[in-house]
Backbone:
């Protein structure tokens, strides 16, 4: 297994971010568990940027134009300063091993920016996604639209970006972007109201105390109970 | 809805002490502060004595975080009545305007304070916070630099500046800020460890070696700092697998990395007592050690 080396360079780059196109890459789909844990992470740290990974089940043969990639779970990584490399490398390495044990593959990256009105992917998002793309060509960036984050979650508040012609372009998020939107809506709303985000563990929490479990078994159970 | 005192079976003294602890630790757990503070203020105000004023301030700021303008206004009004000409209270009024995104008015408030008292650091820092909130990072950085020329000892400001630089990917300048902090706080393991992370991110062999040294230093200051331990492992591994180092340097760094891996293993075993998560992490560490040996040969 290779050490994943991530260099975040100082170069400034033009961010290629365009809106709304018809992608040829495989669209990703989110399960309720993946969606709600992302939002819980953002809700836990309203004054910070947060980020994390999305994982999908590994399938033997991946044909294009067949089913969309189902992101079954989400692994919250960091809050606050996202632009430092060492702990990110550690997290990617450990999560990579965990994925192998569970027959998962890292399929996407999510981020919620610090400021309410800022929901564009930045250099960190692009770098991590590029890294993920080396092992999974259809990797997506999922940005949380902070300005629409509410307790009731009446509409999906993610913006999904695909890599296309060397740029990251956003796609329309429809109900098809979810395995079951009404279930996702119901569960996320319930967990937000119940303040379950207080118990969400991200990788930062894990580094503070190794007993904190970044797979979040308790929250996963709550999700299952609400299904 | 059940009150805090009912839910947690605590008396007003415990609630007051909890608020004090959160103040001392400078915690931003605003939802909890609002829950506890609101109840304390509405039910037990008379018992709090002079503490009530600092509690009003603490609860007001937390209320702003939670969009509870009603509560924030109540606290502000009490403080205004008690301290009519206070700059400290004016600053809180400014913060409320910030929370309502009325930045121009907030800036006017702070400018008025600074007219009256040019050395008022709180007002200056709030103006910088407004720039940050508006996404004007370059201006925020410039203003903060100017501020620090005058108030060289303000550690909170140095730390804020280091974060602003990191977000702009200007790691060299972020390192400079952390160096200032390390100089004045040589025993603070967190600054050492953050400095090491910045150096690591900057990249290049020299920075990686510095990074390893500072991760090691952070560990000496606090041997339970897991980030420092992982950082030591990662930086030593990178150096050992670099084609540019001598055989001796390679050998030394393999030793450091191996030591770190053992310590990480131990830490996980201690923490996990055989839970599933531990097994994966232990396995990951073993694999990390193995992969390093592959790149060695």
Residues:
């Amino acid at each position: 297994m290779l050490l994943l080396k991530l260099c975040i360079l100082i170069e400034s780059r033009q961010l290629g971010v365009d809106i709304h196109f018809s992608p040829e890459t495989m669209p990703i789909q989110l399960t309720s568990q993946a969606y709600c844990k992302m939002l819980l992470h953002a809700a836990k740290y309203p004054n910070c940027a947060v980020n994390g990974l999305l994982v999908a089940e590994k399938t033997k043969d991946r044909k294009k134009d067949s089913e969309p990639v189902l992101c079954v779970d989400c692994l919250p990584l960091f809050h606050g300063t996202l632009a430092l490399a060492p702990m990110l490398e550690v997290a990617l390495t450990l999560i990579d091993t965990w994925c192998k044990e569970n027959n998962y593959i890292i399929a996407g990256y999510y981020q919620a920016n610090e400021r309410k009105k800022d929901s564009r992917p930045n250099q960190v998002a692009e770098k991590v996604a590029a890294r993920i793309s080396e092992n999974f060509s259809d990797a997506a960036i999922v940005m949380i639209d902070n300005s629409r984050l509410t307790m009731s979650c009446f509409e999906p508040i993610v913006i999904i970006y695909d890599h296309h012609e060397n740029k990251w372009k956003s796609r329309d998020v429809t109900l098809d972007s979810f395995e079951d939107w009404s279930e996702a809506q119901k569960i996320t709303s319930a967990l937000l109201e119940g303040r379950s985000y207080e118990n969400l563990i991200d990788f930062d929490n894990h580094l503070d105390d190794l007993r904190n479990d970044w797979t979040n078994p308790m929250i996963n159970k709550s999700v299952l109970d609400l299904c | 809805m059940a009150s805090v005192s009912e839910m947690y079976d605590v008396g007003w003294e415990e609630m007051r002490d909890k608020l004090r602890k959160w103040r001392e630790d400078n915690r931003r757990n605003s939802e909890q502060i609002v829950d506890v503070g609101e109840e304390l203020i509405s039910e037990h105000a008379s018992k709090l004595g002079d503490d009530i004023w600092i509690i009003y301030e603490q609860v007001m700021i937390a209320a702003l975080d939670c969009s509870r303008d009603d509560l924030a206004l109540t606290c502000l009004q009490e403080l205004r009545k008690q301290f009519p000409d206070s700059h400290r209270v004016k600053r809180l009024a400014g913060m409320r305007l910030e929370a309502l995104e009325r930045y121009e008015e907030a800036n006017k408030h702070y400018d008025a304070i600074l007219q009256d008292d040019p050395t008022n650091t709180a007002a200056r820092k709030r103006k910088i916070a407004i720039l940050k909130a508006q996404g004007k990072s370059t201006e925020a950085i410039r203003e903060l630099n100017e501020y620090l020329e005058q108030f060289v000892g303000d550690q909170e400001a140095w730390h804020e500046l280091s974060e602003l630089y990191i977000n702009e990917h200007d790691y060299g300048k972020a390192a400079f800020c952390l160096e200032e902090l390390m100089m004045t706080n040589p025993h603070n393991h967190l600054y050492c460890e953050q400095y090491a992370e910045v150096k690591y991110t900057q990249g290049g062999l020299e920075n990686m070696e510095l990074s390893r040294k500072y991760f090691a230093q952070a560990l000496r200051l606090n041997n339970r700092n897991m980030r420092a331990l992982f950082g030591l492992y990662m930086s030593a591994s990178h150096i050992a697998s670099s084609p540019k180092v001598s055989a001796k340097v390679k050998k030394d760094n393999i030793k450091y990395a191996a030591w770190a891996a053992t310590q990480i293993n131990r830490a996980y075993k201690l923490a996990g007592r055989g839970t599933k998560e531990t097994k994966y992490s232990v396995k990951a560490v073993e694999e990390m050690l193995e992969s390093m040996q592959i790149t060695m040969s």
